[in-house]
Design goal:
About 25% of the residues lie in helices and about 30% in strands. The protein is of the alpha+beta class. Strand 1 and strand 2 form a beta hairpin. The termini are far apart.
Length: about 110
């Protein structure tokens, strides 16, 4: 049996998405689900990085990775977007990357 320890491990200062950021990300994700682009997602938190992965299939590699990272020296937050088979896009605002993500899923008929 494992016991919980309340010490430094509880406050390890991991980087998280704020509730507003997560709301925007999930709104964009729901558009992709309604179009059939994505079926699953995962969130990973590390000390200086938070990742939101979007999958077409739950057993496949992620189609999209949205990363929030913290730079050590300047103490600034940078968002990165990596789409499958494309280069990374960087921005200081999450809205700029979500616009790119939404544009990628529009199809002209």
């Amino acid at each position: 049996m494992h016991s919980l320890t309340f010490g430094k491990d509880l406050h390890n200062s991991k980087l998280f998405f704020s509730s507003k950021e997560l709301c925007k990300i999930l709104s964009c994700y729901s558009l992709g689900v309604s179009r059939g682009s994505w079926k699953d997602y995962a969130i990973n938190f590390k000390k200086n990085e938070a990742n939101f992965f979007m999958f077409k299939h739950s057993l496949a590699s992620p189609d999209c990775i949205l990363t929030k990272s913290k730079k050590f020296k300047r103490n600034e937050i940078i968002f990165k977007l990596k789409l499958k088979n494309e280069k990374r896009n960087n921005s200081k605002q999450i809205d700029d990357l979500l616009i790119i993500l939404k544009r990628n899923h529009f199809k002209i008929i």
